[in-house]
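Handout, page 2. Input:
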Amino acid sequence: MRNLDRWVVLGVIIGLAAGLGAVALFVSLDWATHALLETLGGYRPPTPVGEGHVLAAGTTHSWRIPAVTALGGLVCGLVVWLFAKEAAGDGTNAAIDAVHRDPAGIRGRVSLVKLVASAIMIGSGGSGGPEGPTTQISAGFASFLARRLRLPATDARIAVTAAIGAGIGAIFRAPLGGAVFGAEVAYREDAEVEALVPSFVAAVVAFAVFGAFEGYDPIFGVLRGYRFVHDPVQFVYFAAIGIACGLAGRLYAWTLEAVRRLSLHVSFSRLLTPALGGLATGLVGIALPGAIGTGYGWAQTVMSPGLLGLSGWVVLALPFAKILTTSLSIGSGGSGGIFGPGIVVGGFTGAAVWWLLHGVAPGLPTQPAPFVIVAMIACLGAIAHTPLAVLLMVVEMTGTLTVLPPAMLAVGIASLIVGEATLYTSQQATRSENAAPGSVSPGGG
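Output:
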């Protein structure tokens, strides 16, 4: 069998597993949110267009939210502590670490533990994204496949890389961007180019499987009524977004790492730190409910004309609040993703810039959606060091190409400001630094 044919077959197998894993996580998270945050916490979060489009968030007993988020953090910490400690934190970062160190060495139980722990933590209101768990679940299967087929280390690394792209492409319904993300995210200044074809195949298959169960609509719907005008003043506004998002990205990475280090030095058991992180997250959520859970519905809300009547202080506070709650939830040892919250932080930052300029700046778009979408790309593309992938993903997630020119400017400026700072501490600068071993690990189980 030719090498290309072999990778097409392996890509299909990895894509099937990634798509089913994304479905399992999505269903589990939906159930956990209803049972924990809605029923016990009395808070119904808004949802984006692609997940039902419920924009009016409802809170009946806001005082319950901290109790539920603390309980979710406690149970999450217990599950991780007892069954797979490597399921703590961000799943994408763990998958990147496996790519570099031991792509065939991810224990089989990690995927299941990650699914359960993340659904409980995010479903109870912890701030995290579903993409981290999905990538770790997908990477876990690819690692198992590498062991069973006794793939050499180079091929095992490609398989896990393709699984990362497939998981992202499925859960965000963005197969092209997901595939490129898998190839980009392991390095700050390089890409795993050999993984592109397997990633394309795996991501498309995963997207098809996930969509067959959950639908193919873009998460944030289709941006309508906006056309980029090639006016110099427009570039000034989007350059300002790039500056704001670069600063927000640096703050996000710094805060996450600061909380992570602090949690490692607390005097009591690491088992309890996710509960404390959950409690603090819930307290923030009483005042700013947009800062808990995935936040995707709130990102959709701030795209709406007039920001749906949100007060100015709420719009300005949301980016900082989301950074804080995500750092508390994931940095304390909880289980979830930091990629999705990065999109939300960017969106909130764009909404804040639009609110500050609205009514005083000439030629400003009449709706905040273009600012929100461009800021999503600029913030996450810069701080994750995946600008091309995020450009493609957000286009797929919003169903529009109209924001590409200003987004390219904004993400370039944001990347200059971000510099070497990164969300993913397991990233390496270039492929020459790759430390993957030369043989396949026999472990697993």
